[in-house]
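Supplementary material to the annual report.
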Amino acid sequence: MRNSFFKALEEHAQPETVFITGDLGFGVINGFVEKYPRQFFNAGVAEQNMVGMAAGLAFEGKKVFVYSIANFTTLRPLEQIRNDVAYHDLNVTIVSVGGGLAYGPQGISHHATEDLAIMRAIPNMKVFAPGDTMEAYSITQKLIHENLGPAYLRLGRAGEATIHSSQTIRKMVLGKGLPLIESPKRDLAILSTGGMLENAITVSEKLKEKGIENSVFSFHTIKPMDIELVKKIFKEFKLVVSLEEHSCIGGFGSSLLECLPGISGINLENYLMFALPSEFTSKVGSQNFLKDFYGISPEKILSKILEKRG
Amino acid sequence: MTTFELAKKIRINTLKMTSLGNSSHVGSVLSIADILAVLYNDILKVNPQNPEWAERDRFILSKGHAGAGVYSVLAEMGFFSTEILSSHVQNGSLLSGHVSHKGVPGVEFSTGSLGHDLPVATGIAMAAKMDNKKFRSFVLLSDGEWDEGSNWEAVLFAAHHKLDNLVAIIDYNKIQSIGPVKETLNLEPFAEKFISFGWKVQTVNGHDITELKNVFSSIPFQMDKPKVIIANTIKGKGVSFMENTVLWHYKSPQGEDFKNALIELEK
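Predicted assembly:
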């Protein structure tokens, strides 16, 4: 995903595009830097100034991307994001690398497990968590060419799968959930955000092998949430599950539930939220190890779905 | 209107606004009234008839708590009607205590949390450089806000990138929120800090209109370096019982205090 972001940036940059890094991106930023040296800045390890400056640049008509490891571009300069970028409704995209537990063994300083909740709570802010390399590319391309205002783009690291085909990605619309696998039987819907999409597909295939028809939706946009689609899914499907590599507080699952008050015919007993508990990890381990530990690996998801279906 | 008269109006407007609104920070505005008057009357290239004129100089009040001063000077300069000033901090008003740009012509940027706007002004200065624009990026900061690390991040960046179109002005009244600067976090040697960071420093009497005009008119006094003008000021300047006190950072001028202050300011 990270590489797709840089590829899109390099291939689509406009004269007003500016990329600022908080001293990260060794080996991956070179393409852009060589092509657009005057549109690149290294702010140094100084994220508050990086975001404040981005607001100043965007105030003058630039479209700015600021980049660092997830907590460093979100939590550290949070007030600059809120007051300077969001209140002024400026074209600044906060790009985070390593969303979720991507930096697994590096420790909690590098685990970005509250970012969606916090960014989502800020007025004017749009929140994107692409599910694969093609979604990451496509969202970046739109951020460059359109005036989307303040945005948060949560990337994984390198090496995520490419799930879409050139046909399916064409149907992608910002702010809309994207069906990837559609079963006419409305037994089970798997709703995924961010890098969990690969797991969603794995789980879907395993279920299908067991004769359980299911549909998979990628929610690359967390905010604005596709409320109509969410309502429809909860009304039509017997069982709905949501997958996110994020705290159970305020993330994707929470945002789905926010769509539902006042809607008749919905039974939340038939909803499973796969998310991380609100706690700092007590274990050291890889992304996959930690996901399994917290019950959001494909195996754990599968077994819980099967258990629920009885 | 002369610059002296403008400064006087800023002070009187502010006294009335903070009294009517029962709001604080009158001392913080009195401290910068002369700087604001010189900037708007003599220095900044701005156009009240066209607040978004692309070539205008940008000015941001980083010490957003002194918003009454900016609203006053903008109204007096004709950006909007002076009648609006009496709505300051009232229910339904556009004029919040800390500066907000929404619906207020001439306010470039909303502020209120300290340490934000040297970075923002740095970004604006950088954009001007990228686009070969001649406008300048001015930002007026308090002294207390130099406790904020974010300012020092911007100080490093602006010097590294030789942003000589960036002008920081510091209202050095030596009193911050609840006590004297030197007893809170001493900033001295203040000018030397900027020199060692690669900035060009000028020190000025922040209440001497002629001196302020001379220093501001000499911008850019050095190429390739960002500028900082350290203005020695008196918190509460112009009202004898408000001068150099912490109290008038918070207290709203009411009753006898209001009357006595007005008599002094109208002299």
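Chain B has a mean pLDDT of 97.
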